[in-house]
């Protein structure tokens, strides 16, 4: 493995692990310190902590699927996609720094939720925001990682290169 490839691998793994760690540590605190459906107001009614165990996906989609279907759709398939994404990250000859970080965030967030599904058969969600007309579902730090990564990828794709100082992470 060349020095640049080792650097990319280490950086990618570090970013993924940081996202997984933030997600798992925050969920651990919530599991230990907030009762199920308890509401802790952080900023009035605008930001609330509440513990919900979600056996489905976003907004409980698929919660009533048979166990084998849930395992396939919410664990095996996502894990295969995340492994491919990491492979892509390592194999892509030139990739912008923003795309590299964004994909790493998506991988870390995805793995964070898969860990919950494997260990607890559900995902611990605990944050709710309401700002003006914006009302979120209940979410967690893994969801934040995936969302920030996706927004960064869209931003990177839509903003013309001349407005960004694009520097690539080369192998």
UniProtKB/TrEMBL annotation:
The active site is at 125, 143. The gene is lspA. This protein specifically catalyzes the removal of signal peptides from prolipoproteins. It catalyses: Release of signal peptides from bacterial membrane prolipoproteins. Hydrolyzes -Xaa-Yaa-Zaa-|-(S,diacylglyceryl)Cys-, in which Xaa is hydrophobic (preferably Leu), and Yaa (Ala or Ser) and Zaa (Gly or Ala) have small, neutral side chains. It is a multi-pass membrane protein. It is an enzyme of class 3 (hydrolase). Keywords: Aspartyl protease, Cell membrane, Hydrolase, Membrane, Protease, Transmembrane, Transmembrane helix. The chain crosses the membrane at residues 72-90, 97-115, 135-159. Pathway: Protein modification; lipoprotein biosynthesis (signal peptide cleavage). InterPro entries: Peptidase_A8. It comes from Christiangramia antarctica. It holds the Pfam family Peptidase_A8. Belongs to the peptidase A8 family. Its main location: membrane. It is found in: Cell membrane. Its EC number is 3.4.23.36. This is Lipoprotein signal peptidase. One of its GO terms (molecular function) is aspartic-type endopeptidase activity.
